[in-house]
Amino acid sequence: RTRNAGGPVIFAVATGMGRAAIAVMRVSGEGCGTILRALCGMLPEARRASFRPIRYRNEILDEAVVLWLPGPRSYSGEDSFELHLHAGPAIIEGVSLALTELGARPAEPGEFTRRAVQAGRLDLLQAEAVADLVEAESAAQRRQALSQADGALSRLYQEWAERLRRLLAQQEALIDFPDETLPDAVEAALEAERAALQAEMALHLADQRGELVRRGITVVIAGAPNAGKSSLLNALAGYDAAIVTQRAGTTRDAIAVDWILDGIKLRLIDTAGLRETEDEIEAEGIRRAMFHVKQADLVVHLYADERPAPLLPDAIIVRNKTDLAPAPEDVLGISATTGAGLDTLRDLLRERIRTLMSGAGVPLTRARHRAGIQEAAQHLALASEAEWAELRGEELRLAMRALGRLTGQVDVESLLDVVFGQFCIGK
Ligand code: GDP
Ligand code: ZN
């Protein structure tokens, strides 16, 4: 990858909006040192914090901590600087205006990180992890994003690409051999390595941990009207997120509540009661309830009177209102209103989550990764079916290419918009 000198100068407030004491204005791009000199009257020592008046058109806009970060040892890889300003809106406004008049423009979402990728400071997988770090709400999300930002997933894909490259080289060395003299053992060894790679990719694809941690584990509470679904959601979430009433059919659409259990983000969904109905709005709610049940990672099927047939084979059947009548022996009984049995239900959910989260090694974390590995694995499968060595080589090459696209070693420009479309401004 080639390192470009840098793009036009961009700026953004990198700290959170709303009331705060400090706002960090981040500026990056070719020639931004000139802008810093104009604002500070001099260029401060590199990578040293100093406290200076920020002046523009003979007026002091603020006194700020200034950091001059010349490239390539900066986040974006370009010359850049930071102004740690007082967070008053008039200060930010004034400094933004000054920066604009000095030739900078507001940054696009993720543009600093995008430049870091273009400068070769980060690969695409690491850039995605930066976005995940900014959004991390649970400890598991934080750990996963840090590990991916540190290059754990990149190293796995690079290792696979390197093994493919060696396989391809050995395979091509064999093409020149006349068939009769080709030792079977050599060919068998190559095939064994190809199959091993394909099997490792299949395991990696079967592992859902990364995506579950990233988007949260969806737990749907389903069941007949009045079973106590909304009451259970409120009891688990610890506050009144769902409306509880005595009239059947109150919760017409789904209500979702984020819930962190043992450092893992869960999304609890309370659905409309499942029953036949004439009411059109309620019917729509029920249609959505079935949709949620089908999409769920875990389903808690709640009932209060007659034991229903399970909605799904692995739904957790729970009998509510044990304060009114005891549950059958083989069913978990709870009372959403007294809290009886809720600890046992939480333990059961923990156990199910542990099963969902089984896997070894570094997990993939996005649909983009899944699609890329699927493609690579497919080409590996095709390679084993190919009749000629040349075709086999081509399939191996295509598998390598799919891996290269994941890190951004191949086709990086065409992937930038896809990856940076969902970034926040200032990162
Ligand atoms: P949903 O329609 O399944 O969401 O049920 P709700 O949560 O709205 O509850 C329906 C009614 O059952 C409300 O009057 C609740 O107060 C009541 N209820 C819920 N859980 C319990 C419970 O454990 N014991 C008793 N006695 N009543 C409950
Ligand atoms: Zn309800």
From TrEMBL:
Belongs to the TRAFAC class TrmE-Era-EngA-EngB-Septin-like GTPase superfamily. TrmE GTPase family. GTP binds at residues 226-231, 245-251, 270-273. Coiled coil: none annotated. Homodimer. Heterotetramer of two MnmE and two MnmG subunits. Residues 216-354 form the TrmE-type G domain. It comes from the Bacteria. CDD domains: trmE, TrmE_N. Its cofactor is K(+). (6S)-5-formyl-5,6,7,8-tetrahydrofolate binds at R26, E82, R121, K427. The lineage of its organism: Bacteria, Pseudomonadati, Pseudomonadota, Alphaproteobacteria, Acetobacterales. HAMAP family: GTPase_MnmE. One of its GO terms (cellular component) is cytoplasm. This is tRNA modification GTPase MnmE. The keyword Cytoplasm applies. GO terms for biological process: tRNA methylation; tRNA wobble uridine modification. Pfam families: MMR_HSR1 (PF01926), MnmE_helical (PF12631), TrmE_N (PF10396). It comes from Neoasaia chiangmaiensis. GO terms for molecular function: GTP binding; GTPase activity; metal ion binding.
